[in-house]
Amino acid sequence: MTESNRITFPSDFLWGSATASYQIEGGAREGGRTPSIWDTFSHTPGKVLAGDTGDVACDHYHRWQEDIDLMSELGLRAYRFSIAWTRVQPTGRGPAVQAGLDFYRRLVDGLLERGITPVATLYHWDLPQELEDAGGWPARETAERFAEYARLAGEALGDRVGMWTTLNEPWCSAYLGYGSGVHAPGRTEPESVLRAAHHLNLGHGLAVQALRGVLPRDAQCSITLNPAVVRSASDSEADLDAARRIDALQNRIFTGPLLDGTYPEDLRRDTARVSDWSFVRDGDEATINQPLDFIGINYYNPVLVSASEPGSANAKNDGHGVSAHSPWVGSEDVEFLEQPGKKTEMGWPIDATGLTELLLRFHREAPGVPLYITENGAAFDDKPDASGAVHDPDRVEYLHDHLTAVHAAMEQGADVRGYFLWSLLDNFEWAYGYSKRFGMVHVDFDTLQRTPKTSARWYAKAIATGELPAPE
């Protein structure tokens, strides 16, 4: 795949981009949609920077045709979008709302007309508020309701969508939503973190079963994780144990039951003072352990950890927002250390080597299961120049280096089938509101005008040729 230092990808490599419903759609009160936890959270004073909300966001709900025209212009071969649960099933129970399903039918039909493969994510963090009021993800019923919603979506869109993802980054839903409280619903309850993680896992397993009951036999089902590349600050026993603990909390709490049908014993020991894990019932782990047609991997940066030293400031540079409450239940004393080198606007270190490392780990641990990079990208301070053009050379360099890292993993045997750039559009960046721009397309949030950045043109060239252009 490499000739004279040229980095080329297979002709069937799936080049795409990704978005999430609450971050781009808007139309928050239209078509029968009701509040999700992110509507409630963003409308709660002090929770989101500048009081920003997703009420309008990028107005994709009304501008979807313009957006898929833009995707076609850039040559995207795939588009990963998420379905807003409350647009389809407003209370999280009962029959689907046809107006909501029709929105996604129109979107998918438009993609297919332009030769763009639709990849549907069922859950990207926007739980119906009524289900949160009934207990949220720490409650077992939420997993059961999620399977019902999955069946409704599969029945409606299964004739059009062949690639399905159940959950996006369940770690964030559980740990940031119920531990540190920096994401919706903003709860800070250590045991609820573990209960939520388990019921997200269980919801995935039940949803895969529900989807396979209604989808065509050749449809593909998956989950998207944000596994951490955890590096220890030294080879000391204490630092290596700190890395093991964080690896268990972010990675193996999901891959254990997903891939091996069991939660790791060291995870249970590490969290024994938080919970006795009695919420795991007989048969749950087997239900979670459904065969996967592929695994989605989101990667942004590695983390560097150490054991806490007596009298240290206990740095918490874990990159997940500031809170008085740690998401790292049972391992709150582990230190996340500042890493040297360039950083994005999120303060995240730029290190593409972690992506190669991560892909090779999954190649070893899930042999025979294809991999897709379902998110990878960076926020930079992108501003139009006097002519209205948006030049983002830092993002071009970032994309070049990370796609090079993907290629390196493929050359070492990893079965990577595609790459989805995060994100198509600048959008609502959760608790950061509209202050962080991840898009390859600039959005003026006053006028909603879309302007492809230099990175979009660079990415379009890579898609067209299958070869990485030199960074500018």
TrEMBL record:
<feature type="binding site">
    <location>
        <position position="300"/>
    </location>
    <ligand>
        <name>substrate</name>
    </ligand>
</feature>
<keyword id="KW-0119">Carbohydrate metabolism</keyword>
<feature type="active site" description="Nucleophile">
    <location>
        <position position="375"/>
    </location>
</feature>
<dbReference type="InterPro" id="IPR033132">
    <property type="entry name" value="GH_1_N_CS"/>
</dbReference>
<feature type="binding site">
    <location>
        <position position="422"/>
    </location>
    <ligand>
        <name>substrate</name>
    </ligand>
</feature>
<dbReference type="InterPro" id="IPR017853">
    <property type="entry name" value="GH"/>
</dbReference>
<feature type="binding site">
    <location>
        <begin position="429"/>
        <end position="430"/>
    </location>
    <ligand>
        <name>substrate</name>
    </ligand>
</feature>
<dbReference type="GO" id="GO:0008422">
    <property type="term" value="F:beta-glucosidase activity"/>
</dbReference>
<keyword id="KW-0378">Hydrolase</keyword>
<dbReference type="InterPro" id="IPR001360">
    <property type="entry name" value="Glyco_hydro_1"/>
</dbReference>
<keyword id="KW-0624">Polysaccharide degradation</keyword>
<keyword id="KW-0326">Glycosidase</keyword>
<protein>
    <recommendedName>
        <fullName>Beta-glucosidase</fullName>
        <ecNumber>3.2.1.21</ecNumber>
    </recommendedName>
</protein>
<comment type="similarity">
    <text>Belongs to the glycosyl hydrolase 1 family.</text>
</comment>
<feature type="active site" description="Proton donor">
    <location>
        <position position="169"/>
    </location>
</feature>
<dbReference type="InterPro" id="IPR018120">
    <property type="entry name" value="Glyco_hydro_1_AS"/>
</dbReference>
<feature type="binding site">
    <location>
        <position position="23"/>
    </location>
    <ligand>
        <name>substrate</name>
    </ligand>
</feature>
<dbReference type="Pfam" id="PF00232">
    <property type="entry name" value="Glyco_hydro_1"/>
</dbReference>
<dbReference type="GO" id="GO:0005829">
    <property type="term" value="C:cytosol"/>
</dbReference>
<dbReference type="GO" id="GO:0030245">
    <property type="term" value="P:cellulose catabolic process"/>
</dbReference>
<keyword id="KW-0136">Cellulose degradation</keyword>
<dbReference type="InterPro" id="IPR017736">
    <property type="entry name" value="Glyco_hydro_1_beta-glucosidase"/>
</dbReference>
<feature type="binding site">
    <location>
        <position position="168"/>
    </location>
    <ligand>
        <name>substrate</name>
    </ligand>
</feature>
<feature type="binding site">
    <location>
        <position position="124"/>
    </location>
    <ligand>
        <name>substrate</name>
    </ligand>
</feature>
